[in-house]
Amino acid sequence: MKQLFLLFFFLFSIAVISQSNTLVIQKLNSNFTKEIKENKRIKVWTKDGQKLYGRFTIKDSISIIIEEKVILLEDIIKMKKKSLFGTIANPIFIVYGSFAIIAGVVTVGTGGWGAIIGGSFIIGGVPLVLIPSISNNHPSDKWEYSIKIR
Question: What spatial distance separates the first Cα and last Cα of the chain, rounded to whole Å?
Answer without folding.
Answer: 32
